Structure formats: C-alpha cells, structure tokens
## 1
Amino acid sequence: MISLHDLTKIFPGGVRALDGIDLTVADGEFFALLGPSGCGKTTLLRTIAGLETPTSGKISINDTDVTALPPGNRDLAMVFQDYAIFPHMDVTTNIAYPLRIKKVPRAQRTAKAAEVAARLSLTELLHRRPAELSGGQQQRVALARAIACHPAAFLFDEPLSNLDARLRLEARTFLKRLQRELAVTTVFVTHDQAEALALADRIAVMSHGRMVQVGTPTEIFHRPATTFVASFIGSTPMNLLPARLAGAALHVAGATLPAPAGLTPADHLTYGVRPEYMDLSLTERPDAFPGVISVLENLGTHTLVTLETPGTLIQLVVPEGDEPPIGTPAWAVPRRALIYRDQTLHTP
Ligand SMILES: Nc1ncnc2c1ncn2[C@@H]1O[C@H](COP(=O)(O)OP(=O)(O)OP(=O)(O)O)[C@@H](O)[C@H]1O
Ligand SMILES: [Mg+2]
C-alpha cells in the first residue's frame, strides 16, 4: 500500500509541480497516473521513489513513513522514461542486477533473467550490450530488470513509450497479466488514455499538479467529472457543445433536447456527447444537430464523420460503409450525453 498525504513539491524557481496530493493506492492495485505533458506525473513518481524531496507532506509504504528514507531503502522497482540500463553489462547481467544486489546465487539469477527475458521476447538478445539494442529493446530490458525482483511496489514511468504499436499492445497485455500474478502494487504513468483505461484498476487524471478525478476506468470514461477529463479520455474526443436552457428544453447547436432537472437559464452549460454515442440521420429531426458532412476519416471498421454545423464541428463514428458522401446534409442524433455546469459534471 502506498499512501500520500498532502504532498506538495515546489521546484526552486517556483514551479508547483505537485499541489496537495492525497491518495491511497491499495495492496496489489494497478494504479495509473494520466495527464498531459507537464502536469506532474514524473515528479509524483520520483517523489514516491525518493528521488525528489517533497516540499511538504508525507509518503507511507506499507504503513511505514518513508518520507525521509533514501531511495534504496524503499523497496521499490522503477522503470523510468529514460530507462537507464548499465551500458557495460549485457542483457542477462542487466536483468539479473537487482538479484545480485540481493545476493541471489549466480545460477539462480541467470535462470530468472532468462525466464523474464523470454516473456518480453528478449531471449535472442541476452548476450548483447545496450549499445547494440534499439530504444524499444532497451526499454524492455529495463522492464525485465524491474520485474526480476519482487519489490513492495513497481513504479513505471511510461515504460512502453518507445515500443512500436504492436509490441506496445503485447507488452501491455503481458504487464497486466504479470501484475495480476505477482499482485505487486503498481503505479503506472502514461499520457495515453487508452493504455490507462486498458491496464488500470483505478486512474487519477492530473492537471497542474492536482488530481482532477480518481476513479475506475468505467467511472472515468462514462462520468468524467469535468470537461477537462471529458476531453482527455476517449480515442476520439468528446464533443463539448455550448448549451442554453430555455423553458424545459436545452438548445444545443441547432437541436432542441430535453433538459435535466436542477438547471437555471443563467447557468453556463456544456453539452457533452461522445462520437460513439451518436447516430446519423439523413432526414430532418428537431432533436438532432443539423449540418453538412465535411470530412470522412477511415478508422478501419468504422468511419469518423465530421459534421459542419453553423458555428461548430461535431464528430461522430458510424460503421464503415454507412457514411454518406461529403457535402450531404445530415443530422447527428445524440443517444447518451452528459451536462456540465461551469465545466463540472451536473448530476440532476
Ligand atoms: N528539476 C526541475 N526543476 C524545475 N522544474 C521542474 C523540474 N522537473 C520538472 N519540473 C516542472 O514541473 C512540472 C511537472 O513536470 P513533470 O516532469 O512531473 O511532468 P510530466 O507530467 O511527467 O510530463 P511529461 O508527460 O512531459 O513527462 C513541469 O512544469 C516541469 O517543467
Ligand atoms: Mg514525465
């Protein structure tokens, strides 16, 4: 278990990289930190690891206060963005290194290194040195080295960022299975929302050193707490449209839609609908956004359609082959939407 209490990090020069973080990561939990570049993900991980000293606040690992402990005494295995592996050692020796520190006999640690290497498709490379490896291969060596020992927690900072798309998917599935098997508490940094959704038991979405929302992938995907989270999660971004309450109806981009309870005409409202949760109609209807098909993007099994409406663009996803040609007048019918008041999710 990792507990963070009111953790703040202000760098010399004044950047507030962490701003009062409170969080408990449960035993065996796979926890993802997600957020745009510069939001404080690496700083948070480095602070947990002891590589940065917090300006204030407290860190506990398995109920021991480690705030003042050096990195080596925290029993953590890390893979960082720059995956430093030892240039003068071959792959086997690199992977087995933490076991050597723990004084595991040579035969045993070589066997363990070979086993972990096989699971990361590194068997052919065991005798090479880092300079003879590609970036993605080096990253897998760093990952293998972390999992060769059995620490209190794994800290991963974008450990898959240098892998090509296919290898990244394979490594992701492998990591998830391995983490389940070992049941080691894991904090995983990524700026890839799909990776966070796929891997994590829970996700924290960060912005400017704070956690904007913490929840399960389902909660974060279906009920993003703010428009920031809403725009960040989803393979195609949610449509966020200005809305206005008039009587019992919402006026949104040329459509008249039923309004939820608890709103007033003075509210600053945003109507959020995912591209996947809209249908396309070729006949006019009042509860749909009118426009003209302006761009078609091939997504393989589906097509991303951009509808140009007066004042805004709306995107929706239709099954491949169902897209009308560019220039066709069309109506986007929302099936499932969220309302934000002052950028915050409105719960009637
Ligand atoms: N050593 C440092 N000194 C001063 N400012 C720093 C230092 N390290 C990071 N920062 C600043 O702290 C903020 C958070 O940086 P951090 O590296 O944690 O972001 P990140 O979320 O990991 O971003 P990325 O996705 O680009 O890796 C940024 O504004 C960054 O410029
Ligand atoms: Mg980073």
## 2
Amino acid sequence: MLLICNSIFAMAPTQRSRTTRLLEGAAALAARTWPLAARLLPERLEFDDTPSIWHAGTPGYQPRPPLRGVISADLAIIGGGFTGVSAAYHVAQRFPNHCIVLLEATSLANGASGRNGGLALNWINGIGTDDPDLTRKVYDLTSAGLVAIRTLIERHHLSVDHRFDGTLTLHTSAERAEAAHAEAEYLQGLGIPVRFLRSSDLRSRFDACGVCGATLEPDTGQINGAQFVRGLRPILEERGVAIYEQTPVIRIRTGRIIRLTTPQGEVHAPAVVLATNGYTSKLGLFRDALFPLHSSVLATAPLTPDQQQRLGWRAFAGFADDLDRISYGALTRTGRLVFGGGSNQAYAYLFNNRTRLPPESAVARRAQAAIARTLAGYFPSAATLPIACRWSGVLGITLNRQPLWGRWGEYKNVYYALGYSGHGITLANLAGEFIADLYGGDDSRWCWLPFYQSRYPPIPPEPFRWLGYQAFTRLTGRSPRV
Ligand SMILES: Cc1cc2nc3c(=O)[nH]c(=O)nc-3n(C[C@H](O)[C@H](O)[C@H](O)COP(=O)(O)OP(=O)(O)OC[C@H]3O[C@@H](n4cnc5c(N)ncnc54)[C@H](O)[C@@H]3O)c2cc1C
C-alpha cells in the first residue's frame, strides 16, 4: 500500500504512461547538451518582492545591513528560510564556540518559507512505500518535526499565529476515497493516528463541494512561517550567529576553505550550508537536480463569523486535495482563508529557472484567476469574499519529488538540504538537526532516509527544460515527475 496521506504537491507514484517514458528518454538525450547550455544561458539571481499575508504579520521588520568587507567563519549558511535558520539554530546550540555566519539575499523568510500555504504536515514528499518499518520511521520523524516546531514557539515565546487542530486530505473521487479509507485503516494498524472521515461525517465541520471523504491527521496544523523565521532572528543573534540580510551570494568557490563572494564582501569558511532551495541553480550547483516552480496564493481579509458559517469551514487548520495539481488551503486563527494551487495555470515554470514572477504578468494574473475559480469550486460562497493579499512563491521541485540531503564537494564540506517539492515546512525545520549532526560527524540518525546522499533523476537543461515542462503539463495535465 502506498502512503498518500496529506502528500501535498505529490501524489503516490502512478504507472508510467507512454508519454512519460517518451519524455524521460528525450530528457536523457537533452542532458548531453548541459556543458553548452550552462555557458550560453547564465541564470539571473532574482527574488519575488510582493509581500505575502505572512509577511504582513511582521510589521516593521527591518532586514539587517549587508555584509561589507572580508570575514572568516567556521560555518557559513547561505539562505535565510526555514532550512538556513534551523541550521543556524541547531549548529549554534551544539557548537556554541563556533563562528557562524548567515547570508540572506533579501530578508529572512522572503523565500518559500514566508510565501507558502502554511500547512505543517506529516510525511515526506516522494516517498511511496509498502514497507511498514519505513512508513513508521518516516511518520515518527516528521511527527517529531511537528513537535519541534511547537516546542520552539513555546520555548522562545515566539509570536507566531498557529493552530494544530488537524489537517485534511480531501478525496475527490469515490474510488480514491475507498482506497484512502483502506489506507487509513492500514496506518492505524501501524499505530499512526490518521482517521478516515466519510463525507457525511465531514459536512457539519467542513462542507466542501465534490468531496467523497477525507483523511484527517490530527496532530498537523498551520503556522505563519514569516513570523516563525523572523522571530528566531534575535535568538540566533543572542547565540552569536552573525546575520547579514540584503546579502546575495553571487559566487561560490569550493575548496578546503570555501570562498563566498557577495556584492560588497567575501566570506571564507571551511564549511558551508546550502539552504537556497528553489534558487540553488543560481550558484551553479545542483542545476540538473531541481527546478523552481512558481505557485500562486491568495488570502482573504479576516472572515466574519457569518462569512465563516456560510463558507462551511468550521473546524481543522487546513486541507490539501488528492489531485496531481494539488489545491491547498488554510484557515488562520484570525479567520483568514489562505488558498493556492489546483490547476496547471496555478503553477508556472519560467524559462531558464527565473525565480521572480512579476505580479502584473499575464502568467501571474492567469494563475490568480485560476486559483479563485478552484476555491469557489470547493466553497461557492468564497467567490464573494474580500481578497486582502495575492502573491506567489518559488518551490524547489525534484523530478521524483524527494528532497536532496547530504554533503557535497571534493572536501565534503558543502552541506545541503534542498528540494522539498512543496512539502517542506516540517522537513526544512528538521533540516537544521540533520545539518548539525552531519557537521558534528554523525549521520546515524539520518542515513536510512532514501534521499540521503542519493542520486537523483536529472532534469535536462534549457531549452529542453522549458519545452519539456510545457509539453508534459499540457499533454497530461500533470506536473512532470518520474
Ligand atoms: C506558494 C507555496 C506554497 C507552499 N505551501 C506549503 C505548505 O502548505 N506546506 C508545506 O509543508 N510546504 C509548503 N511549501 C514549501 C515550503 O514553503 C518550502 O519547502 C520551505 O519553505 C523551504 O524552506 P527553505 O528554507 O529550504 O527555502 P526558502 O524558504 O525558499 O529559503 C531560501 C532562502 O535562500 C535565499 N537565497 C537564495 N539564493 C541565495 C543566494 N545566492 N544568496 C543568499 N541567499 C539566497 C532566498 O532569498 C531565501 O530566503 C510551499 C511553498 C510555496 C512557494
């Protein structure tokens, strides 16, 4: 049996179609042109700047000044999202005398960590298994990750809007609902507390149209990632971490001592953490491993009790559906409905790994119209709700949807945790524990993970990447995966 509970942005692997096999073959051929493409098509370092509703929850936040001059550190972390901040937190805790520097191109949580759907979920994307031991281990790991998020919020009294009263996976066909029911029973047999809810049981609490049943994961929930990441900044600084925002790393030169070049400075360090997720290829690394996919999101103004009543959403922090072009939604404690995904148009891949989707572009406008339509399909009264904020963010997508975790380089001194494929809130927050263990020379807690230090299915260079994405999504209505 395949575990599919709440696999946001990922469905259980299905049988490969002829189209998929054909495209895979073409991709392997196209990959031979990498040396040429890498030289002819340099990538541009760019970032979304439209604030999300989560950013609006950190009013007055001021990024720290950029790095000026040449400095040395024991460990330099590139990227200030969940992964980078979590790495800084755990390494600083474990090695209080080490000099740690965090370099963030714009401001903390300006990437996916402050632009997501907010769902803190169980499970790891891309792992479909019928092995009960592996199922239990993955569940225990991500469940510990959820507890760790809540513990951090409580320990440091972080002002983070959150609720952990469970999330749903909505099943949109009777057949899939039946399979999900059987799966929920199987998981319960392993001691995993998921529950299947029939549509008749669901309706009084969550009345979405076209739903044939749902799987409830009671310990999952929803957080404001921008408040979480930015709230940790003073804690890191108290622990001696030097944080430079507005500091893009524009060049990385590997070696026993790694040199990171920024517009006004340089960092020399014997070890570096790549916490750059969907932006990683800009540094010339992992270019064939993951690609940036834009997902658009909207948030309503806080709903009145009457609007919430009419909406039919009376319980649970959030949901995702069981479709390949997944829809995801959350209802915050302050009564805002946050929603994204749900169709080909709601997601976009831009030529040559562009990582900024201008909000005024036709692609962004089409995406926003598409997500509004999908939302109204689930909740008809949502069509008239006041929209307070629209934005998009960059996911780091791998072809098999598994993350990329490990150490890289001749001296194995580049630590990386990337490619969560849209399911990273829990895992990216665990990544810091992983990196601290590896940095300390002990991988025993992690070496069973199927994606640890593993090979990945390669993605071809441009122009094949863009053409392949367009062809695959239009022909199949699905997102490219192997
Ligand atoms: C629209 C959207 C919806 C999502 N919904 C969910 C969800 O509901 N649940 C879930 O679990 N996951 C979701 N995700 C995925 C989740 O948000 C990510 O997996 C997670 O935030 C990844 O964290 P990160 O720190 O690795 O990457 P990011 O948050 O992207 O952080 C990377 C950081 O690196 C910085 N950076 C990049 N390049 C450089 C450079 N050269 N120099 C310096 N800094 C650099 C960037 O500015 C950025 O701040 C969603 C993502 C998006 C975009």
## 3
Amino acid sequence: MTATEPADAAERRSAEPVVCYDVENLPPVELDRYERARQSLAKVDEVLVPPRQARTFHVAAGQFFRINSVEGSQVGDLNLFNEHDLNERFFSGKTRQLHASHLTRGDRMWSNLPHLRPMATITHDTLEWYGWDDDGGGVHDVIGTRCDPYTQQTLNGADYHHCCHSNLTRALADETGQEMADIEHHVHDVLNVFMCTGFTRDTQQYFMKASPVRPGDYIEFVAEIDLLGALSACPGGDCSASHSDDEAACYPLLVEVFDCTDDSMSGWTPSAANEYDRSHGR
Ligand SMILES: [Zn+2]
C-alpha cells in the first residue's frame, strides 16, 4: 500500500541540496602542464580492440593514452588496474561522488579503498562540447556498471558470451595467464567511454541513447600511476537500441599510448598512496 504523504511534505522536499564533498579541496589538476605536454606526444604503442572483444594495454605513470573511435560509432567499457597490484582498481562510485555522473576533461578516475588516489586524469575529450542534452543525457558515464551475462540470463533466460563483463574477463585471463574463474572477480564497474546515458525525468531509470561519437573522436588521459588497462568494445555498438546480443553494428576501438617528448612533465610525480592510517578508530 502506498504510504500517506505527511502534511509538511512540501516543506521537507524543499530542503536545500548540499554537494556532499568539499571537492574544492581535491588536489589541483595540472591542466596547464598537461596541455603543454600533449603538444609533444609521440606514439609508443597501440592496441586495436575488435568489436565484441576486449584487449589489455599498459601505460606507465606520466604517459598519455587515448581511446579512439575508428570506423563507426562505438561505445567502450574501460577497466583500470594498478599494473603492480590488481587489487587496486578503478572505483566508479567514489569517482561519481567526487566529480559527476559523467566525466570529461579535468576529471580523474579514482582507485578503490584502501587506496583512493587518482589513477588517471582526463586531459582531452573531443566530446566535451556535448554537455547535457534535453533528455538529461551526457557522455562517458560512471553510473552504469557493464553489460554482463548474469543480468542477461536473469532478464531473458539466455546465455550470451560477449557482454563487456565476459570480454574483460577473457582479456584479463589472457593478460595474466590465470584461469577465468580465478580472475573474473577483478572485473569491476567501468567508465562507459563514449556512451550517452542518463536517468529518465519521470521515473529516474537508467537510459541510453545513440552515442554522439564519430570516427576521429577520442578521449585522452594521463596515467597517474603505472596502469594496466582493459577495454571492451561493447556488443551494444553505439548503444542506440540494444546490448547483450549480436544485433547492433559494432566497430573496433583503438587505444594509443604516448610519451611526452619535451620537458613539460619534468618534476611531475605519480599520485602518492593515501595517507589515512587505517587504524579505523582502534
Ligand atoms: Zn557492454
């Protein structure tokens, strides 16, 4: 039965929203330095991620990497790990709380507890112009998780093996030489690269709509620590209609890794370990 609205409901609803975190206290992002550095980038590696597959890549602290749209409009699901410790990985939820539901230039990808430090900073985003559309949608969300075969089985009673979760699991098993059953739990909630999403105005349900990304678009990061990345080219393609099936037109994504070749990064240091003493009050 629906609960009865109290007499002071309007007054309760009119409480002022307060931004949860003092985000002005975050360590400053050196965007001026990165803007200078990115003028002298030289490519040192590239990895082509085939459609409905995932691939891993390595980026040393201080190197830059780009995820490029090639051939057609395509969404990517990105996982990041500390290259030396898979237990330190991207923390979608805290990143959302510290920045916003969707990320762009100047925002950082933070790692999980007990690490909580910047793993990567977005230094350029050719879709920065998109902002928020009339549906409340934006690009590069950290609200969705990743398409996965368990949800697909629950909703549709069918096994599908090329969801981003499975693609990332296979790629991580290949990278580490471990069995999929032993490595699957390291796959985590993603940055939904190029994906256009939001919450419906009336029911606050997670929606997707055709990605505005086109070949030539890219999102670029500087690695704040040594990174192992894993990127899946989502079976949803541009995520305009469906996912978790073989219906959508899908395209590859190109990952490129760059060195800065001038002195713009001299004196720059990787992000330090979190300083909390971990005593938890004991
Ligand atoms: Zn996906």
## 4
Amino acid sequence: MTENLLRNWEIEHFRTIGRELREAGIEFTRKNIERVLNETSFTTRSKKHPKECPYYQMQEGMLKSCHPKIEADNFSCFLCSCPNYDSSSDQGKCRINSPQGKYFPVNWNSSGKVWDCSDCTNFHSTNQVRSYIESKFKEIKASLQS
Ligand code: SF4
C-alpha cells in the first residue's frame, strides 16, 4: 500500500498545533479559545514559526495566505486541513464538492493531480474557525493530544 501523504500531513498539522499551544502555555479549553485563535493565526505563526509554511516566509508587505481571497490578518491556520477535505485518497477531494475548489496537476502522486482549495473561503477565516472549534470542541481536543 502506498503512503497517503495528504493524510499524514493532516495528522502532523494537528500535532504541530498541539505542540505550539503547549509551548506557548495555552491549554486548549473553551475559556482559552480566543488565545488559541490568536496563537494559531496566520499573523502570529508567520512571526513565531516561519519555517512551518512557505507562505510565512514572504517579505513584509507581500505577505499573503495560501487562500488569497481571505486577508492575511483575518486568516486562521488552525484548520490548515479543512474539515471538508477528504484525504482518504492521495488525490484528495472535497466532501461538499465546493465549486470554489478544483484539481491541480502534481507530479508527486500516482493520480497526477490533487484537490486544490486555494480559491475557497470556507473554514479559513477567524470567525469560521471560532464557530467550528466551539461546535466540535471535544473532537478537536482529542486530535491535538494524539
Ligand atoms: S474546497 Fe473548500 S470546503 Fe472543500 S475541502 Fe477545500 S477548503 Fe474545504
């Protein structure tokens, strides 16, 4: 069986976020949701963890997120992997078939394409992520601890 790079990336992202929150001394509690959002924002992570994402390494003034339709200062990296993203295959797909997504050609998997969410605005703004965390608090807490 070939390795599913997308799934590995999803799992690793949540582990990384969990580790960063622990290092910042922020416990994942309902009371701390605003602190969690701030610590995992594009703005904070690009300063504190510039090696975690190529987009964090852009020059000041050119800084933009991987979903350019959302302003960088309103962008949350908490759900780097959207809850609607289906990573069960290495090409990925959108569970709700968002018309804002599309397949993009790649040379690193067997299907030669991967589902690309960069034009989609779902689940990446601070307000959307806050609502998602509030509605799925227990499940998210478990993912961060795994
Ligand atoms: S296209 Fe949008 S809704 Fe679908 S998985 Fe990507 S970010 Fe999520």
